[in-house]
Write a structure and sequence with these properties.
329 residues; mainly alpha
Length: 329
């Protein structure tokens, strides 16, 4: 457990990195904008083409990316506590699969971007309710039952997505694949994920003490006065809705919800009062940096941001997996 001063310092560093990642995203691109001009534009002293690029194109994308990355990291941290499984991530319970089915059907039938987002959100909610309903048995649900139900539902959704891809016209396959690999360019107005981020933090942080007890085991938490059933349901619904909003906004972006909570845990320990806000800052920064790379590495062509997060996440995960103490957390 870090000292209070060290914890504050780490949070301050993460906040500074978040600001730096957004500034980098606003400055770098096919039209380079010096940081001084970026600041002038943000505070009302800039204009012209560079100002339009910063305000109308890069700023919404950067804010949306930061909110999505933060939501994924928060959802991952919450699900790892809920399932007491270090391999849990926001997509392990089939939310992404349900959204993928909805989005692929919308693209297949030629709906607009609003229709794609709407059906993706409906699919995510349907998958969430299906998993939550099926995971209940006569004696309630357990972590194992919830995890297995989510994996099976995700596998079924994956099969449906593969079927749709196999029958889709060739001219629609590119858009489908980009959606499945994650693409912040399709997001648009970042207001919804930003509101969701504030709401998830507002809901989760007051229950950080209870989450700390739940991480020790359901029996221990219940003995110490935690309403385990209600807390589990609230964590599941909060993490699932956060994931559904991200998938609707940006498609499937992997590894952030899996990797970021582990990295933060190495620095701060497992106190949810620190872990949750730190994960949000680190996850948002990571996705903004990955998206900046995705649109600049092979410019003017843009890569799906999910490809970059996977390329970053795989070696980091393998490193974490090799740490024996981490596997026992």
């Amino acid at each position: 457990m870090p000292t209070r001063r060290r914890a504050v310092l780490i949070l301050a560093v993460l906040a500074a990195l978040a600001g730096l990642s957004i500034a980098l995203a606003l400055s770098v691109g096919s039209i380079a904008v010096p940081l001084a001009d970026v600041l002038a534009t943000l505070f009302g002293g800039g204009g012209g083409v560079a100002g339009d690029v910063v305000l109308n194109l890069r700023l919404p994308r950067a804010l949306g990316g930061f909110a999505c990355g933060a939501l994924l990291a928060l959802a991952g941290a919450l699900l790892q506590v809920l399932l007491r499984n270090p391999l849990a991530d926001p997509y392990v319970l089939g939310i992404s699969g349900g959204a993928g089915v909805g989005a692929m059907l919308a693209i297949l039938f030629g709906l607009t971007a609003a229709g794609v987002n709407g059906l993706a959100f409906v699919g995510a909610l349907a998958s969430m309710l299906l998993v939550f309903g099926l995971a209940h048995g006569e004696g309630g649900w357990t972590q194992t039952r919830l995890l297995l139900t989510g994996v099976i539902v995700a596998a079924g959704c994956g099969a449906v997505v593969a079927l749709i891809l196999s029958i889709a016209p060739e001219q629609k396959l590119h858009g489908m694949l980009f959606w499945l690999m994650g693409d912040l360019a399709q997001g648009g107005d970042p207001l919804l994920p930003m509101i969701a981020l504030v709401a998830v933090l507002g809901v989760a942080l007051p229950f950080a003490r209870e989450l700390n007890l739940l991480a020790r085991g359901a029996d221990t938490a219940q003995t110490l006065g935690v309403a385990v059933g209600r807390l589990r349901s609230g964590v599941y619904l909060t993490a699932s809705l956060a994931t559904a909003i991200v998938v609707t906004y940006a498609g499937s972006i992997g590894f952030i919800g899996l990797i970021v909570p582990h990295l933060v845990r190495l620095a701060l320990g497992n106190d949810q009062r620190l872990l949750l806000p730190a994960s949000a800052l680190a996850g948002g920064s990571l996705l903004v940096v990955a998206d900046t790379l995705a649109r600049t590495v092979v410019a003017p062509q843009q890569l799906p941001v999910g490809v970059l997060t996977a390329l970053i996440g795989v070696p980091v995960f393998l490193y974490l997996l090799a740490r024996a103490p981490l596997a026992r957390r």
